[in-house]
Automatic annotation (TrEMBL):
GO terms for cellular component: cytosol. Pfam families: Aldolase_II (PF00596). GO terms for biological process: pentose catabolic process. GO terms for molecular function: aldehyde-lyase activity; metal ion binding. PANTHER family: 3-OXO-TETRONATE 4-PHOSPHATE DECARBOXYLASE-RELATED, FUCULOSE PHOSPHATE ALDOLASE. This is Aldolase. NCBIfam families: PRK08660.1. Keywords: Lyase, Metal-binding. It comes from the Archaea. SMART domains: Aldolase_II (SM01007). It comes from Methanoculleus formosensis.
Length: 176
């Protein structure tokens, strides 16, 4: 069942252009840890996720961003995370420290999208993303991508989509 949820949300991310190739990852919190996509996996492939315990070593097959997911689960009540590479959000992060959506949905659901720093797969990015998601649902890592969190993968996907849409509107309106 979880495999199908990962595949369904992964397919939506691809169809909307929020990820490309084998970029991005997803996870769902469970008892004693979380299930996360495999390193190098295509999000719409249907590959079974890998279980990562709350503490200790992660399996080699786990996404290289497992540190971020673990840090978010430790610091927040969120139960699901989607990490994507939406083009307009990444572009916006190059020049902004905070993105303020101008569209009605973005303004209502995520009026401020913080931009943080950190190299992929490091403790720095894990700490910065977890800190930003304590009080919100979406963050952009400068030059890298978004991390969205919620109660379900669907909710995290929606925040990812809203952030990209908001950044696209800002670019098209000349505000970024």
């Amino acid at each position: 069942m979880l495999d199908q949820e990962f595949e369904r949300v992964g397919r939506r991310l691809f169809m909307e252009g929020l990820v490309g190739a084998n970029f991005g990852n997803m996870s769902v919190r469970g008892e004693g840890g979380f299930s996360i996509t495999r390193t190098g996996a295509y999000l719409d492939s249907g590959d079974a996720p890998v279980f990562v315990p709350d503490a200790g070593a992660a399996p080699r097959e786990a996404s290289s961003e497992y540190r971020v997911h673990r840090a978010v689960y430790r610091a927040t009540p969120h139960s699901a995370i989607v990490h994507a590479h939406p083009v307009h959000a990444v572009a916006a992060s190059l020049d902004a420290d905070l993105v303020r959506p101008a569209d009605s949905e973005g303004g209502m659901l995520c009026p401020e999208i913080p931009v943080v720093t950190g190299s992929p797969g490091t403790e720095e990015i894990a700490e910065n993303v977890a800190g930003a998601l304590r009080d919100g649902h979406i963050v952009i890592v400068r030059g890298h991508g978004t991390f969205a969190a919620g109660k379900t993968l669907d909710e995290a996907y929606i925040y990812t989509s809203i952030a990209e849409y908001a950044c696209r509107i800002l670019f098209l309106s000349g505000r970024l």
